Structures are given as structure tokens and as C-alpha cells.
Amino acid sequence: MSSPLPPDTSPVPPSIFAPAMTLAKPASKPTSASAPTATPLPERAKQNEAQGSNSGSPKPTSSSKEFHKPRLRLHLNEVSDPGTSIFLSSINPSTLLPSAVSRVQKALYVHPHGEFHMPSTRSVTLIVRPMDGVAYTTGIDLDPEQHKEINLSSRYVASISTERRDHEIEGVIVHELVHCYQYNGHGHAPGGLIEGIADWVRLGAGLAPPHWKKSDGVHGKWDAGYQHTAYFLQYLEDRFGEGTVRRLNEGLRTAKYEEKPFWTKILGRPVEQLWEDYKKEVK
Question: At residue 2, does pLDDT exceed 90?
């Protein structure tokens, strides 16, 4: 296992979801409290995709067609829970969720009918409930490949400082939504790469927490995960050009992950060499 992560960083979820793998149920069990009926959220109004700037963020290109939008549901396990009340007062789920889905889709796939193949996720249910940790994503038993559940800890929401609540909640949701739309090398990609891609999207969305530092991860391994791998991926994006991380994700769709052939086929050199190059630049 990797060393403990900084505060406010999402822990490794009980089961990491990616479309190409079938998941076991998470270890933590839902609370026994009764919950209201899941309510569908309205779909986001159609928007034109704009060409991104040179800021280092994932940059969508223009397209006349919209991505397929999944059915979005919100499930509150305990409406009287303090964290649930804070969640509802900090964000507007009916606008944030569709916006976050669009952000993730464009970051990983640019536009609906390009060279990158987006999984056919049909629904995403956000469950806010008292639990340990921060959040995790899994598939629903009905069809784990097309129906996803994001579990968000109301206890964690309650622990966020007042001035950062909306920013942090959105950042966590964007991270978890990436797990609804990314690939995992047929179940063989390292967890650190999966989590790093999720935080790369969060980083590019301008939702990085203040404690994230690029230099913190250079003494560890490239696949330490989360923000440490996210900064490494952004270095690769800057070095090899826009769309590099999308090509990595597409490579995780097409074949079983094997480290050396995966990296050399896409970027022409082994990941260990790329990591050493990155460390020299950061230092």
C-alpha cells in the first residue's frame, strides 16, 4: 500500500469502479435509516463546446452534437443528518450534477463521435449518507456497466470548512464521476493510474484543494495515485500535447494493461523513464 495521503484527499474507495470491470459490493453497508424515493434531476440545457485555452486544463473542441446525458438521481439517506443539510445548502444538485457530467465527458472524450469511445453509462445515482471516508463509486447490481452509484459521506461534508464547502463538494463529485466514465485496462491497470486520471480531471477543472502540491509526490512512485499521479499526467499532457491523457484512457479500453507495452506504444518510452524526466523538471 502507498503511504498515507494528505488531509482532505479522497481515500481509496472500497471498490474502484471503471466500466470494463465487474465489482463486488463495497465493504461498508448502507445505513438502516429509511430513505426518500430517488428523484431524477433535470438534464442540463444544451451548450456549445468551446475550444479551451492554453492553461493546461483538458480542452474540448467544438462539436455540433451533445454527449448522451445519463439519468441523474439524488438519494438522501437521512434528511435530518447535519451533513445532508450542509450538502443541500452548499450546492444546487440539479445544476451541479449535469454540469459535472459534461465536464468529465469533455475532458475524457472531447466530443461524442470522435476518435475516443465513451462508455454507455445510462444512469448515475448520487447517494449522500453517513459513512466513514469521503466517497466511492460502484456499479448497480442490475447492470454495473451502465448504472453507477456514487456514495458521498455526509460526515465528510460536515467536516469541510465553511469557505470551502461548495468547491470541495464539487471537486469530490467530479472525481467520482470520472470513475463512471473511464476505462481500466480490462481490470489490470494500477489503481494509482485510475485515481490519478480522476484527479487529473479535477485538477484541470480548477477544483484542486489548497493542500495539493506538485512537489509532494516526486519522492514516491509514479502510480502513487490521486494528485501525485494527476500532476504527472498533466506533465505528460504538456509534453506530448493535448489529448495525451485521453489516448491513455482509450488505450485502457482497447487492451489488457501491461505496463511496458502500454506506455511505449502510446508515448514511445517506458513509464519509469517518463517519471524520471518529470522528477527532474519538478526539482
Answer: no
